[in-house]
Hints:
Blueprint: H1 10-45, H2 53-88, H3 95-144, H4 147-162, E1 175-177, H5 182-190, H6 192-201, E2 209-211
Parallel strand pairs: 1-2
Helix pairs in contact: 1-3, 1-4, 2-3, 3-4, 5-6
Amino acid sequence: MGGKGSGPSNNQMVQFEMQQAQEAKDKENLREARLNQGKTAIDTLFGPANFDDAFYQKYTDANLNYNLPQLSDQYDKAKTGMGYDLARAGLSSSTAAGYDMGLLDKQNAVNEAAVRAKADTDTAALRQSIASEQQQAYNQLYQTEDPTVAANTAATSVANAQLTQPNLQPMQSMFTPIAIGLSSAIAPAYGQYTANQMVAKSPLGQGNVVTSQT
Length: 214
């Protein structure tokens, strides 16, 4: 015959379950505290102190300071070459000279805009790369639940990212030749305005910068 003392009382069972629930709650609180500690460290490392607007602007400027002078040199050479060719053709003061120089200036502006757009694109790619590194640090934190390991890994990633420089390469030629005075040559038959439009729509009037080559 079973006596009342042969097993735990209902009160003891309730206390045991409450103790287990408290231990589980305490364990989860400690886990959340570790994760919050790690996330705070990661956010600080990847925050404005290391990656503010000035950091990204410096990266953009390094790109532009390398490429814009190259474009300027090419433009100066193209303009000088066009001037020589116009002089040899006796067109230095002609309408064709103004038209050709206008094409040169217009396409130089197009090329400069392309250089600046690429610099912005490269900087956006850097932002994305750094955001990806931050996400990897989060992933490691939640996998290991060790804020110290995650923070140390994040610190290494940040140090490497801060040393990132644009991939600078010598600029290829941005200028292609144009037949000097072509619009003047066909103007007698079609009129100067129509001739200019024909040149602009022809392969010689399109592409990158159109100018002469010496």
